[in-house]
Structure to design on (295 residues):
């Protein structure tokens, strides 16, 4: 039983949806929380501000939202000395990080699952002075986020990600990069660099078995043009592939500290949000951020 908790909902969502979401969750939450405060976020970045300024006042923060809301919440809580646990209730387009945490995607089931769950410390990646939970990347992954059409997203939801990805894959040029992983230097070309902490992307589980959320390391995937065609097949779900480490189309590395430079500045996608450019320095932060997850 928690003495108090804060539930954050997206105030810019349709009022009927807000009411429906609160009705689906509040009754369950009140069984586990003595005092529950509900706050509506008003603008982009508001979740981060609330978590940073109010986080110390609560034993638990819960958000109903997608990966963007999770990204904001973690960036607000990560600066606190002893952040409260974060509970995620899926309410976005892809909800990839909640999928990585094995949280059910139906709202009522998700609420039951986390409130009867346990607290688990999950790795987060620090990229310069910011944080990410699921991934950061450049090239194809960032181009995909830029190309997502808001009208598609509203009508098609998660399928907008796949439409954009398939369009981007047909028009991808390689770029030059210098990557340093725990002191090991790689200079090469690629169409995408993906640094993954979670194991879902665009609602699809990544076909790699190496990704563990609390192993203290990030997984780095270097994708060349041959690897891009494999990703296209995977996104189309016609030929889901098992990654073969003996092939060079997609190369895999693991590490705790990563420095990334490109020949010219490139947009960096962090959890679907784009607001920085290369060069970047990344470190894995272990045991820093607690999450409320299913048992």
């Amino acid at each position: 039983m928690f003495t108090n908790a804060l539930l954050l909902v997206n105030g810019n969502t349709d009022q009927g949806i807000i009411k429906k979401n609160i009705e689906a969750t509040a009754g369950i939450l009140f069984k586990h929380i003595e005092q529950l405060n509900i706050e509506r976020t008003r603008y982009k970045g508001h979740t981060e501000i609330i978590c940073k300024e109010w986080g110390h006042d609560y034993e638990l923060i819960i958000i109903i939202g997608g990966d963007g809301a999770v990204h904001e919440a973690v960036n607000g809580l990560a600066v606190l000395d002893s952040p409260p646990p974060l509970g995620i209730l899926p309410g976005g387009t892809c909800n990839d990080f909640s999928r990585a945490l094995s949280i059910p995607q139906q709202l009522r089931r998700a609420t039951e699952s986390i409130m009867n769950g346990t607290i688990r410390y999950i790795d987060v990646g620090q990229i310069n002075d910011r944080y990410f939970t699921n991934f950061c990347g450049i090239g194809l992954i960032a181009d995909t986020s830029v190309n997502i059409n808001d009208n598609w997203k509203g009508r098609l939801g998660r399928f907008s990600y796949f439409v954009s990805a398939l369009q981007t894959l047909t028009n991808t040029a390689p770029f030059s990069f210098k990557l340093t992983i725990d002191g090991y230097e790689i200079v090469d070309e690629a169409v995408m660099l993906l640094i993954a902490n979670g194991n879902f992307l665009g609602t699809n589980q990544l076909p790699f078995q190496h990704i563990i959320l609390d192993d203290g390391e990030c997984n780095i995937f270097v994708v060349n043009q041959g690897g891009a065609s494999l990703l296209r097949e995977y996104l189309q779900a016609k030929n889901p592939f098992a990654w073969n480490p003996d092939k060079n189309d997609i190369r895999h590395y693991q590490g705790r500290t990563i420095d990334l430079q490109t020949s010219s500045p490139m947009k960096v996608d962090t959890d679907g949000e784009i607001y920085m450019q290369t060069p970047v320095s990344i470190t894995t932060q272990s045991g820093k951020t607690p999450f409320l997850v299913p048992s």
